[in-house]
Design brief:
Layout (H helix, E strand, L loop, with lengths): L1 H28 L6 H16 L7 H32 L5 H22 L14 E4 L2 E4 H23 L1 H11 L1 H6 L4 H23 L9 H16 L4 H21 L5 H15 L6 H4 L4
Antiparallel strand pairs: 1-2
Helix pairs in contact: 1-5, 1-8, 1-9, 1-10, 2-3, 2-4, 2-8, 2-9, 3-4, 3-8, 5-6, 6-8, 9-10, 9-11
């Protein structure tokens, strides 16, 4: 049982990283980015092509190239969707039109993956040493340590960025009162673009960490984002700390369900989990205790 809880926690941290990307965009523009998984998946394939085969680049170079591609694609997606988003804001809509547009963009990105990289299933491993140890009956590996360290760096980096920088202050202002922020001279579009770029980077990080535990295909990362979406819903789309809590809860619950019930019903279980969360905690499980602050 302890081992299941530990592995669920490690996996849940990956869901949390991806969920924070979804929350960043929702907080700034009140829309859900359904292209999140496709952009991250495209970047994972870029790393695979760059570090294997004829290119044979170092891992770091491949990751930097993938981050550049993710930032470029995310920036292009936002610029294409921005007119719809602005119109939705003018009409005091909840950016439903822009959200649907992200779904279409995600489908196009998946089509590009199939067109360029094909439908083959490949493996993509992290350049980590083969180290493991056992603590209180729990197997701890170098991969687990890497996930913990990366998650800690991501959370600390976001905290410093949002709480200690001018861009972070602008992000919080736009998230809370977009009209008042615009009247005060803040660039709402710049904040939106920042959230898309930061979200894309988080998506790449999560994808590169989760792919070694399974395989890489045209739909692997997009499927993984269902768990991230569940984490964002449970934690609350208005709360970054809630994403971490939601990710861990989803990771543990999914691990226990897969082990004790049946892995083939995991998607149905996640949908039921989302519906239960929306019924009992529509604002997220932390909303009643810590409010909606970042």
């Amino acid at each position: 049982m302890i081992s299941l809880l530990w592995q669920g926690t490690v996996t849940g941290l990956l869901y949390a990283i991806a969920a924070m990307g979804l929350v960043l965009i929702f907080k700034s523009s009140k829309m859900v980015n359904f292209a999140h998984g496709a952009i991250a998946g495209l970047s994972a394939f870029v790393v695979y092509v760059a570090t294997t085969g004829a290119l044979g680049w170092p891992w770091l170079a491949g990751v930097l190239l993938a981050l550049s591609v993710a930032v470029g694609v995310a920036g292009f997606a936002y610029l294409a969707i921005a007119p719809l988003l602005n119109e939705a804001n003018t009409l005091k809509d909840t950016a439903t039109t822009a959200t649907i547009a992200t779904l279409g963009f995600g489908l196009m990105a998946e089509g590009v993956i199939l067109w360029v990289f094909g439908s083959n299933i490949v493996s993509l491993d992290l350049p980590l040493p083969a180290w493991s140890t056992s603590i209180v009956g729990v197997r701890l590996t170098s991969y687990d340590i890497a996930v913990l360290l990366v998650t800690a760096l991501v959370v600390a980096g976001l905290f410093v960025l949002i709480d200690r920088t001018r861009l972070g202050i602008a992000f919080r202002a736009v998230s809370s009162r977009p009209f008042a922020a615009a009247v005060c001279g803040l660039s709402v579009k710049r904040v939106h673009l920042f959230s898309w770029i930061a979200s894309a980077i988080l998506g790449v990080v999560a994808a590169l960490l989760v792919v070694p535990t399974t395989f890489l295909s045209s739909t692997t990362v997009a499927t993984f984002m269902l768990q991230a979406f569940a984490a964002a819903v449970i934690g609350g789309f208005e709360s970054l700390p809630g994403s971490v809590v939601g990710g861990i809860l989803v990771g543990i619950a999914s691990n226990l369900f897969t082990f004790y019930v049946a892995p083939e019903f995991i998607n149905s279980f996640l949908l039921a989990l989302i519906l239960m969360s929306l019924s009992f905690f529509p604002g997220g499980i932390l909303s009643r205790r810590v409010g909606a602050r970042v």
